[in-house]
Design goal:
Strand content: 25-35%
Oligomer: single chain
CATH class of one domain: Mainly Beta
Number of helices: 5
Largest sheet: 5 strands, antiparallel
Order of helices and strands: HHHEEEEHEEEEH
Shape: rod-shaped
CATH architecture of one domain: Sandwich
Helix content: 40-55%
């Protein structure tokens, strides 16, 4: 009886999977040797994996701390910018208020000096004085614009009131005097009511052919026992070309 023939695997050096496992083991061993040599070289050069890991963690902590500090500084910078903007606005408001107060003080000082000068000249019984009278030609012929101011000469404890009227003297074809009604075209006199001073702007019209020589201003008080204030001005002296 013949003996059985050996399997094909027995004809070689062993099973195929064993040869592959041996080659894989050799390759892995070579890699381990190489890595060990690499680590040995780094260790010999003074490099430590644990030290590198520790240093990496320290650096990460430092970076996180720096980021927190940066965020805090940015928030502080925004806060300071807001505060500076508020201070700048407040400074502008204060500067504007100071300028307004200074201008107001200057105006009040001028009024006070003017009133002192008026009182020093003597006050009429009515307690009022006619200030500046300015007469200028209008846009149409025979039309004139008169600007006049009234001011107190006594102590301004309360308001004063009354009437203001104009009249004109001159030469004309049929008359030598013009009343307030003719000059202004109004049936009633102007009314005044103030505590310190009041300004008036009125349009006057003279008839054709009339040549005015004087403008008369009459100021009456609402109190009947006080005499009116009557002042006359040369027409040419108060006119502005």
């Amino acid at each position: 009886m013949n003996s059985p023939e050996p399997l094909p695997e027995a004809a070689g050096r062993g099973p195929l999977w064993r040869r592959r496992a041996a080659r894989a083991g050799l390759a892995l061993g070579a890699l381990l040797v190489l890595y060990a040599s690499f680590e040995m070289g780094r260790y010999t050069a003074g490099y430590s994996v644990l030290a590198a890991i520790h240093e990496h963690e320290v650096l990460r902590g430092d970076i996180a701390a720096l980021k927190r500090t940066n965020r805090a500084l940015q928030a502080r910078a925004v806060e300071l910018q807001t505060i500076n903007a508020g201070h700048a606005h407040a400074e502008q408001v204060v500067t504007r208020s100071i300028a307004q107060l200074q201008a107001q003080i200057a105006r009040q000082s001028e009024k006070l000096a003017f009133y002192r000068g008026v009182v020093a000249q003597g006050a009429p019984p009515i307690g009022l004085r006619v200030g500046e009278v300015l007469l200028s030609p209008g846009k149409r012929p025979l039309h004139f614009h008169v600007d006049i101011s009234l001011l107190r000469t006594d102590r301004p404890d309360g308001e004063v009131n009354g009437t203001l009227s104009f009249s004109a003297d001159g030469q004309g074809p049929g008359e030598t005097s013009l009343t307030n009604q003719v000059l202004t075209g109004k049936s009633a006199d102007l009314r005044y009511r103030f505590r310190y001073y009041q300004e008036f702007k009125e349009e006057l019209v003279v008839p054709p052919g009339f040549r005015p020589t004087h403008l008369t201003v009459t100021v009456r008080s609402s109190r009947p026992n006080i005499a009116p204030l009557i002042q006359s001005y040369p027409w040419s002296a108060v006119s502005v070309p």
